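Recap from last week: sequence in, structure out.
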Amino acid sequence: MHAFFFPAASAITPELVPPETLRQANAITQVTNQVVLAAAPGAAGFVIAAVGTAGGFAVDAASFVVSALFVLLIAASARPAGRASCSAWRDLAAGVA
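Predicted structure tokens:
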């Protein structure tokens, strides 16, 4: 998952923020990643203690659904002006070529 998410997040950040705030956006992204890496195991422990292992998996699955919805919102608003529709396969082929 990380092999796809972090390069994609790094690539889209310049499309989402003005150039003068790119450094701050990158800094916030890195700080957020470090805080999540430090806090997530403890939070997972509390969730598993509260709702059990199966409930923990359900909470994790729900978090992926919510994340996917937010990514779809970002993808819809971040399309370059010259491209009405995007094709992942076309973009992949162009990147490999």
